[in-house]
Specification:
It is a single chain. This protein has 357 residues and is an alpha/beta fold. It has helices spanning 18-26, 60-65, 73-82, 118-130, 152-167, 181-190, 207-214, 239-256, 276-284, 304-309, 319-330, 342-356; strands at 9-16, 31-32, 39-46, 57-59, 97-103, 135-139, 174-177, 194-197, 217-221, 264-267, 295-298, 336-339. Strand 10 (264-267), helix 9 and strand 11 form a beta-alpha-beta unit. Helix 5 runs parallel beside helix 6 and helix 6 runs parallel beside helix 7 (207-214). It is globular and about 55 Å long. The chain starts with 8 loop residues before the first strand and ends with a helix.
Length: 357
């Protein structure tokens, strides 16, 4: 995908909800963000090489009138950013979707390998289902910083028994967290409805074909480098725009290959090849990613930057910070959240919806 030298990027600002949003959209003062329930009244226009400060802040009505602003990009962006998101793996996106994490690995950063064996992972998955998980994400290869890759045989032995067992006892959609085309195909046959690939289908040259042929949904995540080395010295020209362009290119590759946009979710990859400052810039500006026209997933649960903000709390003591990250994402219209603590997150979102949306 070619990036124009002076390409504008549109960042929704001044988000509103409830009756206020309804009135503002009806009067032309706002546009729905990804179909609602939030709307936005202003847009910040970003360009490469300019200050990170909001020097170009326009009202939606002003941009509608000044059609010459942003060289014709505005209309095309509006179609993608404002359109309602389609049902993904049978999930209704009118309410936030919680993806429960099931790590079938001996070296997960978040749980220390407590669920490293299939039986323990199954028990944990059932707990997450009882807490109200909308979808389960089952992974057999640790992608924590410094982790070494698992062999296909190791990964297969970890995830397939769990997916097969769960597919036989629940109608809740299942996702497989993998970078390997072989695992994607076998997991789909076993009952997985989604592939969650931290490399955005780049690690395995056959991965894109595997997703297309099986008909599963896919999460395209941004990661700079490989898990073993991604935190050594991550650098960007502009992390927000670089991540956006990378995901835009991966979405375009999928669509060109015959994977429809309605089957694609995107994830900015918090903590994957990013410094604390990079993560914070992404978290403050998550609404940018609605411009890709896809469901946006946020996976910030228990991540290291939360520990830094929370007085150095270890991973298993970052629940309050993780809940705050989810609410920060929901305030920017994020539709899916990949979380360890499903029950607590559902409670926090229920209170937020009752008071904010």
């Amino acid at each position: 995908m070619t990036i124009e030298q002076d390409q504008p990027y549109f960042l929704p600002r001044r988000l509103i909800g409830g009756d206020e949003a309804e009135r503002a959209v009806a009067s032309g003062e706002a546009l729905w963000l990804a179909g609602g329930p939030l709307a936005f009244t202003h847009v910040e226009i970003l360009r490469r090489g300019t200050s990170a400060e909001p020097a170009y802040l326009f009202s939606v009505k002003g941009l509608e009138i000044a059609s010459d602003i942003a060289e014709g990009h505005w209309r095309a962006w509006c179609e993608l950013a404002s359109a309602p998101r389609p049902v993904l793996t049978g999930l209704d996106l009118s309410a936030p979707i919680l993806m429960g994490i099931v790590n079938v690995t001996p070296d997960s950063f978040s749980d220390g390998g407590q669920h490293g064996e299939p039986e323990a992972a199954l028990a944990h998955a059932r707990t997450l289902l009882a807490e109200g998980a909308d979808i389960l994400d089952i992974g057999g290869e640790s992608t924590r910083p410094g982790a070494m890759p698992a062999s296909p045989e190791q990964e297969r032995a970890r995830v397939l028994p769990v997916i097969q067992a769960l597919a036989g006892e629940t109608t809740t959609p299942l996702s497989v967290d993998t970078r390997k085309a072989r695992i994607m195909r076998e997991a789909a046959r076993a009952g997985a409805a989604m592939v969650n690939d931290v490399s955005a289908l780049r690690s395995d040259p056959d991965a894109l074909s595997a997703v297309k042929e099986t008909g599963v949904a896919v999460v395209l995540m941004h990661m700079q480098g490989e898990p073993a080395t991604m935190q050594d010295d991550p650098r960007y020209d502009d992390v927000l725009l670089d991540v956006y362009d990378h995901l835009a290119a991966r979405v375009a590759s999928c669509v060109a290959a015959g994977i429809p946009r309605k089957r694609i979710a995107v994830d900015p990859g918090i903590g994957f090849g990013k410094t604390f400052a990079h993560n914070m810039r992404l978290m403050r500006n998550l609404a940018l990613f609605h411009g890709l026209g896809c469901v946006v997933l946020l996976g910030a649960s228990r991540k290291g930057f939360l520990g830094r903000l929370g007085d150095g709390a270890p991973a298993d003591r970052r629940l309050p910070a993780s809940l705050a990250a989810v609410l920060a994402g929901r305030r920017q219209g994020i539709q899916m959240f990949r979380v360890h603590d499903v029950g607590a997150t559902r409670q926090a979102l229920a209170v937020w919806r009752a008071t904010e949306e």
